[in-house]
Amino acid sequence: MTLVATHGYRSVVPTEKKPIPPNTEWPADKIREVAANSGKPLEVECARAFMAGGWTTRLGWYFEDGARTRELDVLATKVSGPPTMPWKIRALISCKGFPAEKSPMTYSVSRQALKGYDPMLLAQYRLPGGRRIPGGDQFGRLEEIEYNSGGILSVSHTLKDCRPFVAFDTLERKCVARGKTEDIEFKRCGDLDLFEGADSALKAAFDAQFRDMQSGAPFATLSIPILILSKPFWDTCIDGGRVDTPVLQGASYQSNSYPLPLGHSRSVMTLIWSKQNIEGLVALLNEELAAWFDLEMELLLNGSVRG
Asked: Which runs of consecutive H residues, i.e. helices, occur in the chain?
């Protein structure tokens, strides 16, 4: 706006807006900066790390969430077992990127300070040829494996000393001019992006399980919802309602009660990991979880009986 003096008073004359240039004239370096913070390069980094660990990966796997169709960033699977009864570990991964001025943040509570939900993964099966588990069914949940697999991860060398987190947040660092000086301020931006990322991984896991059951083919699956972040996250302990000094973390987990149809619910564990530790995550899943799951599935298959 431009102020113009007219007969002793000032009137406001609108300043002409400059036309927006066509996108062919936009600066490539600025566009590259936006793309780098989008989270899309992180999806490729994540997929490559799992591929290097012997997993099969897919980008852009779609799943049903009620009446909506949503996209999961990365689906990684590791298949074992005989052709007549394959079993797989499935990592359902959502990725979130952050620009330089923003950082992810979590609030955590020590395991001894407050009893939370048990860390459990999702596991189910369908046996071939009319076989069933002794005293059980031909298909259904593998509740003992769900419980034990979550326990293996929660006491692993990476997670055994961490506090489970109970809430997300996002921090923003801003430079604020105050006269000739400049102050640095930090503010909360809410948990929406992080919540939606974790929610995507969880709902994709449930949808994948539903598809398995609908296929009618023999199978067993162990599903792991994972949220991968582009940078380490600040974790703040809030034991007893007191706020401790935040510390940077590269890995943690959350266990929540997740609603199911007909008023039911179940405890589900979600991993949160920074991209700087992706190779460590793949090694953890390969060395501590996959080897154990292979053994459990062999025992289950060999111990099954004809119905």
From this structure: 28-36, 40-52, 143-154, 192-215, 278-284, 291-303
Residue 73: domain span: 46-304
Contact 233/103 with Cβ under 8 angstroms? yes
Side-chain-side CA neighbours of 289 within 13 Å: the count stands at: 34
Provide the token pair at 52: 């290097």
Q: What is the distance between the alpha carbons of residues 307 and 302, in angstroms, rounded to a whole number?
A: 14
| Cα–Cα dist 55/74, whole Å | 12
Residue 286: strand, helix, or coil: helix
Which residue type occupies 142?
A: L
Residue of 50, 60, 47, 61 whose CA lies nearest to 207: 61
State the DSSP H helix or E strand holding residue 224, giving kind and residue range, or none if neither: strand 219-229
CA gap 36, 244 in Å, rounded: 33
198 assigned to some structural domain: yes
Question: Is 292 inside a domain boundary?
Answer: yes
Q: What pLDDT is recorded for position 271?
A: 97
Task: Find where tokens 């899943």 sit.
Answer: 285
Q: Are strands 233-237 and 102-108 parallel, antiparallel or unpaired?
A: parallel
The number of domains in the chain is: 1
Does 1 reside within a domain?
Answer: no
Q: Is residue 129 a part of any domain in this protein?
A: yes
Closest Cα partner for 169 from 197, 135, 193, 144? 193
The confidence score (pLDDT) of residue 52 equals 96
pTM for the predicted model, two decimal places: 0.88
Q: Which residue, among 246, 249, 269, has the nearest Cα to 198 in the 3D structure? A: 269
pLDDT for position 237: 96
Token pair for 26: 């936009």
Extract long-range pairs of 256-261: CB within 8 Å, 24+ residues apart.
256/117, 257/117, 258/202, 258/206
Task: Tell me what pLDDT residue 187 has.
Answer: 92
Parts of the chain with a pLDDT under 50 = 3, 5
